[in-house]
Each structure stands twice: as structure tokens, then as C-alpha cells.
């Protein structure tokens, strides 16, 4: 479903027919600037503009408020799966048990994160939380939200992070930096780099959103430009003899070229692209298949 917050509350739409969005629910109570729905359940978490430090968890079908929590600073992001609810503040993260909403763990004194950048895997079998490990470079901290301990730190980019996303199984994490040209995909278990894609060479591009398809075969990216890029994961195959010769030639050439130049040769390009009618705004993307 699609959840939209507005000046007059929030609305839920069905995506069964993307050509004709069906309104599922409408709440016209207060200005809502943040709203998250737990998959297709009736559980909705909201934050209003009038009370930016208060989180409300509601059962929208019954029209009842389950609970509310207040925090020390403005809530910047809320993420949920079937076992955890995570609230992100600028310098801390609160991990709740979604069954009773008790705070299980608080990650304090995180690097300044004014955008509330974080990601929570959607599977409770591999319940991982990712957030910036640095405010100056693109480090990703992977935290085990099930067993409540830090797992690994991934040095993903030279510049600060701009976007994060787990694949549906939580085994991979996609990252983009403020530079906005390269998207990398790492193993969430050990931080090994698996794929690298080049969005483009245009400067001053702000990547605002990354999303995997549910099958895990595609990754899409949106930014402040009018173009949405879709990348396809091509798993390595047995190389024919010709490719071995080409790789040998590339290995010879790379010894004489800067690392930045040889990296460009190995970066994947967009499998497909879509063009939006406007640019210069923050776009959030998802893949529905």
C-alpha cells in the first residue's frame, strides 16, 4: 500500500491497480509529516507537526490509539518490521519490541544524523538495523536488532551517506553517498562489496531513495533529478576464454591507471530508467511487481 501524510492527516491507498489508486483509509485529524504502516496490517505509526517528539501507534481500522511515546528530540525517522520498531533521532536510536512497544535498547551518541538516515530489514529472521557510522565519511554501522549488538562497520564511501536500503532477506545493503554518482551493494554479514553501479557523472545530484524489488533482482534509485534509475543484479557466470583474455588485458592496463579510472570500467550501468515530470524535489521510490 501507499501511505501519504498531509496537512489534514494521512491516507492509505491500495496499489493493486497503479493506474487507479483505491483509497483504503483517510484520517483527517492533524497535520501528519511522518507515517509508517506495518506491511498490510492495521498498525500505523504517526508523528504530527504539532508534536514532533511524540510517536503515536494506532489501529486504523478500529480507530484506536494503542500507545504513544515521547522522546528527547524531534523524531526524524520511524522504521518497522514484524518484531521491531525503531525511532531515529539526530544522535540516538530507540529499538522497541513491536509486540508490547517496550524499549529494548537505546543506541546513544551516534554521529550527527540530521536527515534521520537509517534502514531496518523487513524480515524478522535476519533483523538488522543500519545507520551512519560517521558524519564525515560514508561508514555504515550494521546493528543486530534481534540480539541487540553491533555487527559490522562497512567503509562504503569517501563522502557522507545519502541513502541506505536492505534487500528483502536482509543479506545485502545498498548505499549511496552525498556525491551521488556511485551506488554500492555490500554483504550485510561481513561487509564485502558485491556490486557497484554508476548512476551518472553529473555533479551535485542528491540521491534521496534506494529500494530493492521483492525478488531481490532489481535495485532502483531516485534523486533530485527527473530520472529514476533501475539496476539489475547480474550474478557472475563462467567466463569464456575470450573474457579471460580481456580481463588479463584489463589487469595489465589497470596497473598503469589510477584506481578511480579502473573502477569506472567495472561499474554497472542502469538496466532501465524512468523520467518524472518535475525535478529539484526529493523523490521516494519503491518497486511494485
UniProtKB/TrEMBL annotation:
Keywords: Autophagy, Lipid-binding, Membrane, Repeat, WD repeat. The keyword Cell inner membrane does not apply. It is found in: Endomembrane system. Its main location: membrane. One of its GO terms (cellular component) is endomembrane system. One of its GO terms (biological process) is response to stress. InterPro entries: PROPPIN (IPR048720), WD40/YVTN_repeat-like_dom_sf (IPR015943), WD40_repeat_dom_sf (IPR036322), WD40_rpt (IPR001680). It is a peripheral membrane protein. The keyword Cell division does not apply. GO terms for molecular function: phosphatidylinositol-3-phosphate binding. Belongs to the WD repeat PROPPIN family. PANTHER family: WD-REPEAT PROTEIN INTERACTING WITH PHOSPHOINOSIDES WIPI -RELATED. This is WD repeat domain phosphoinositide-interacting protein 2.
Amino acid at each position: 500500500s501507499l501511505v501519504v501524510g498531509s496537512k489534514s492527516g494521512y491516507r492509505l491507498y491500495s496499489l493493486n491497480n497503479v493506474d487507479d489508486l483505491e483509497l483504503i483509509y483517510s484520517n483527517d485529524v492533524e497535520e501528519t509529516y511522518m507515517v509508517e504502516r506495518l506491511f498490510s496490517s492495521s498498525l500505523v505509526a504517526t508523528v504530527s507537526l504539532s508534536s514532533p517528539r511524540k510517536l503515536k501507534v494506532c489501529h486504523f481500522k478500529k480507530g484506536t490509539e494503542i500507545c504513544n511515546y515521547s522522546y528527547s528530540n524531534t523524531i526524524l525517522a520511524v522504521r518497522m518490521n514484524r518484531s521491531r520498531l525503531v525511532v531515529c533521532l539526530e544522535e540516538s536510536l530507540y529499538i522497541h519490541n513491536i509486540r508490547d512497544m517496550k524499549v529494548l535498547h537505546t543506541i546513544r551518541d551516534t554521529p550527527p544524523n540530521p536527515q534521520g538516515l537509517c534502514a531496518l530489514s523487513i524480515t524478522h529472521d535476519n533483523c538488522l538495523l543500519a545507520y551512519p557510522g560517521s558524519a564525515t565519511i560514508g561508514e555504515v554501522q550494521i546493528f543486530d536488532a534481534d540480539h541487540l549488538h553491533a555487527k559490522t562497520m562497512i567503509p562504503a564511501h569517501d563522502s557522507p551517506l545519502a541513502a541506505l536500503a536492505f534487500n528483502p532477506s536482509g543479506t545485502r545493503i545498498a548505499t549511496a553517498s552525498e556525491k551521488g554518482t556511485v551506488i554500492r551493494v555490500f554483504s550485510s554479514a561481513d561487509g564485502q562489496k558485491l556490486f557497484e553501479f554508476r548512476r551518472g557523472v553529473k555533479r551535485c545530484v542528491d540521491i534521496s531513495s534506494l529500494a530493492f524489488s521483492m525478488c531481490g533482482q532489481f535495485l532502483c534509485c531516485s534523486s533530485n533529478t527527473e530520472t529514476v534509475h533501475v539496476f539489475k543484479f547480474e550474478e557472475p557466470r563462467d567466463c569464456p576464454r575470450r573474457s579471460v583474455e580481456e580481463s588479463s588485458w584489463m589487469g595489465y592496463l589497470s596497473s598503469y591507471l589510477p584506481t578511480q579510472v579502473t573502477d569506472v570500467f567495472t561499474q554497472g550501468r542502469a538496466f532501465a530508467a524512468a523520467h518524472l515530470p518535475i525535478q529539484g524535489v526529493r523523490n521516494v521510490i519503491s518497486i511494485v511487481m
